[in-house]
Recover the amino acids of this structure.
């Protein structure tokens, strides 16, 4: 069952990435050049702040074993491709920003994941398999190649690219629904057997990660919710792959599925709080700047 979920998740990832690239083409490069600081702040949030938050919350709630491992490994798997579907509904600029963020995460994953593998090995004795070459080969068919193909097709056949993008997005969304159904089947029976502390730790980490992404884009009003979602949701496909190699048991996969279910249940709360955050969050964004780029 977990193998099927992983395969469907990877296919959906590639489909959504290619769909976004078909719609935006080379506009992603212009978006990055116009606001490089925004994307650097977002990378710091997902590669430094969020993993540290996960480790701190796991320690505060005394989580152990596979439960702790699943929570932390899901937190160091940033960049959710489903974000692109939400970004498209917010307009072309949001879709471009989402694609740039996912591209940067994919390019930096072979650098930062091995670093976190060594940190987790030193702190928890967790044997995380995260070799740069293996990660690159994993990301190649799911992110690098679909993105490159989408950009090339957009440049050569712009009209056909839009039609193809719609078909890919529909197929990817259907696959996502199928993956969610499988996750529910795997994860719900395990919910009642989880460490009770996890039912508090997972929502707290989810909201904390969301606000980390929100603060990363604090100076860009139009991007706050987008980066909050990206930081909080992570990349389930990559997370499940890391968990499968580190804890190759059905129990670990079920725990990860249960955590993803808890995340999904907390999503409406994050959307509401992201739209009207506490007043003290506005101190970081007293003079928001709307982005403009060619």
């Amino acid at each position: 069952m977990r193998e099927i979920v992983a395969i469907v998740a990877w296919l959906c990832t590639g489909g959504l990435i290619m769909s976004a690239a078909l719609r935006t083409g080379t506009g992603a490069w212009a978006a990055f050049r116009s606001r490089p600081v925004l994307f650097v702040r977002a990378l710091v949030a997902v590669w430094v702040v969020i993993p540290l938050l996960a480790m701190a919350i796991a320690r505060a709630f005394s989580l152990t074993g596979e439960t702790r491992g699943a929570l932390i490994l899901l937190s160091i798997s940033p960049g959710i491709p489903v974000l692109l579907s939400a970004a498209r509904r917010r307009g072309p600029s949001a879709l471009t920003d989402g694609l740039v963020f996912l591209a940067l995460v994919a390019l930096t994953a072979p650098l930062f994941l091995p670093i976190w593998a060594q940190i987790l090995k030193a702190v928890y004795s967790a044997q995380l398999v995260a070799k740069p070459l293996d990660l690159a080969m994993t990301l190649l068919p799911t992110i690098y190649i679909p993105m490159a193909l989408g950009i090339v097709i957009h440049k050569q056949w712009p009209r056909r690219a839009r039609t193809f993008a719609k078909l890919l997005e529909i197929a990817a969304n259907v696959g996502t629904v199928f993956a969610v159904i499988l996750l529910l089947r795997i994860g719900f029976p395990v919910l009642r057997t989880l460490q009770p502390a996890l039912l508090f730790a997972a929502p707290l980490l989810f909201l904390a990660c969301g606000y980390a992404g929100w603060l990363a884009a604090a100076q860009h009003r139009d991007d706050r919710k987008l980066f909050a979602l990206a930081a909080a949701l992570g990349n389930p496909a990559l997370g499940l792959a890391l968990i499968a190699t580190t804890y190759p048991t059905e129990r670990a996969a079920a725990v990860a599925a249960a955590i993803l279910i808890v995340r999904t249940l907390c999503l409406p709360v994050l959307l509401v709080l992201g739209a009207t955050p506490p007043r003290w969050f506005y101190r970081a964004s007293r003079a928001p700047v709307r982005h403009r780029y060619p």
Remarks:
- The domain at 2-282 is CATH 1.20.1530.20 (Na+/H+ antiporter like fold).
- The chain has one domain: 2-282.
